[in-house]
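Final report, closing paragraph on structural work. Over the funding period we assembled a curated collection of sequence-structure pairs, and we close with a single example.
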Amino acid sequence: MGRTARDVGWCVGMNDGAPRNTGRSARARAVRWGLWAIAALSLLALVALSYGWYRLRSSLPQLDGAQPVARLEAPVTVERDALGVPTVRGASRLDVARATGFLHAQERFFQMDLLRRRAAGELAELFGPMALPVDRKTRRHRFRAVAARVVAGASAAEQELLEAYSDGVNAGLAALRDRPFEYLLLGATPAAWTPQDSVLVIHAMFIELNGEEDAYESALGALREAVPRQVFELLAPVGGEWDAPLDGAPLPTPPLPGADVLDLRTRPPAAPSRVATGGRRGAGSNNWAVSGARSAHGGAMLADDMHLPLSIPNIWYRAVLLWREGTSERLVAGVTLPGAPLVVAGSTGRIAWGFTNSDGDVQDLVEIEPAPGRPDAYLSPGGPRPFERLEELLRVKGAADERLEVLATIWGPVIDEDHRGRKRALAWTAHHAAAVNLALQRLEQAGTVEEALDVANASGIPPQNFVCADASGRIGWTIAGLLPRRRGFDGRLPTSWADGSRGWVGWRAAPEIPRIVDPPAGVLWTANSRTVDGAGLAVIGDGAYVLGARARQIRDDLGEGRGLSERDLLAIQLDDRALFLTRWQGLLLEVLSPAAVAADPRRREVRQHVERWGARAAVDSVGYRLVRAFRVAATERVLAPFLREARRVDPRFEGGQLAQVEDAVWRLLRERPAHLLDPSEESWDKLLLAAVDDALASLPGGGRHLAALRWGARNTAAIGHPLSSAVPALGWLLDMPADPLPGDDDMPRVQGPEFGASERMVVSPGREREGIFHMPGGQSGHPLSPHYRAGHEAWVRGEPTPFLPGPTQHVLRLVPGA
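Its predicted structure, as stored:
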């Protein structure tokens, strides 16, 4: 009987008429079953992958066709361009709010959910025990209760707007064929949206822009206790020589204290301490306005780039909203914050506006004085008062729920204890319903600079520098958001409010808040540094102003010339010249003298790179990276003895909170007093030479291969989705490319791997078609959407793209439904 192909294939080693080799046969069967198992597992994996891919695609947003939406009063048309930017046309503002909510839910619901959960302290309900530390910290503020009070106290029109938006969100979520993909991966079900959740999104921005524990004031308090007043004033001024305020002048560097005040030669040596020498990195931003007299076309122009942590999806969602009011059509175009129904920054054709973090002081640490003999009470202006003890339930996915006790005072919740064991409460505008509102919507009706500034002063948002331009060519600046009125202190240091001589007594009235309209030079600019002096500064306070180098560079870039265009303003946004570091480059070349270079061959190569550094934070510059690292290392050595004293007082002291130490460090290096040199240093010259070696040691590989250590190799984009950090295997699908990026902290083009311009906008009200816009990432939060990465490359390269949407690619009609 002849053998078939199957026999030959599986009966390895069988010979006709010969005994069967049973060992080989068993191995053959094992191989056969192994192959079958692999095939079966591969098929199952394919089925699972196909099913997963199907589920993933099922959560894609709807781009075309018609979709019924409950409570919609009339049809709304949503036209999307190639980038996915929607133009929303409706019969009323409420219908447009419903449509905005629908789009946010379909494109960005997970992002919205994270924002409300971050503010409410409810992340553990979604992510499990790993999120509990964050929830415990945030829940002390009880923002969900504050949000309920905000909604209850809102005007009827604001409540209608919030309800309409929430209806749209829930309709958009329900219209998806499957829940957003993030919930599939987490095995969770998204919860419905409520009007209170939109207020929580505003609270999330308070946390982002202010922090939630006033680390700056805490650091100043420790430093003030640790060193003599003259030293404190040197290291912690409100501003300095780099300032470029709108009103006032740069502040001179305080004189160095004499040996009779502080003599470090009598103190033990200190080790270099890490300090963020560019100032405190947090939320920042640039904006400026140019009057019509300074522009090429005669219209006022606004430029705005808000600096925030970068992630995918981007914090902003672009939109153009149009609706009818009587016989006219209203337009507002710009960026919305998913979770809220308003355009945050943009243009209406009549006015254009943008924000930067003001770094005004809206938080205070209140030292609690215990009531004698009553551990459950504290002293207040009305006498002993019992702590209010509130219980918060933290729901935890995959674990038992946790009960958290919040200790509250009349000034705010108890958030910590200082180094002496004294309880401290936090007074914060965000705790007050009066300081959180939707008044920003009134910008949609404003027609002049004055009207816009009035709206800004009444808006309940984290206090911001508000810069605007109107269609008549005029410009203005003020502070948006409520500011506390202090009594008996300036708010810079922790203090007791027990006797009533210090504390908050209401809010600053609009006439008290500084504003500038139509300055003679025809330009306004802000960049998170001090903007005013004198009485205006006392009103705004000091919440940790950053070094003024960036603001000065913007002011000087604007110059005094006329004929400025939108592209000229974009060029300023992209300015990566290292003007601030130029003097440090000169100092480094002085340190790298012939004798210093001869003593260590590595220094010769360092000098070569520093000589041709290019004076820019360019991706291919090794010299820029070396100069920057030298400044950091030198600053750490100069400040080491002072920071040591502060850490003796409070081990939690953070030197990075000292945002204005640059002038002090430079003055010390210029004057080089022996009594202010740490005893561990032989001389100031040796300190600087040691800083060169420190800088090299801080680089990858100890700086042995300098040619490969370009700035772009360090400043490489790491813009990822929240889930890819937990599941790195998803990075290829969810994250943006790892592009080397130009720019740094102290120049207009602020850029780090995970921090930078969350948008770039240049627009003249009434000339929106000539405007420019960029943002990292894309419109959609869904990785299979064609709009997930669309536009990102233009942001990386700084290429101009239009402020308004391009030709329509998709049309979706939202129609009234049950």
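Residues 307 and 757 are 4 Å apart (CA to CA). The first helix runs from residue 5 to 10. We thank the funder for supporting this effort.
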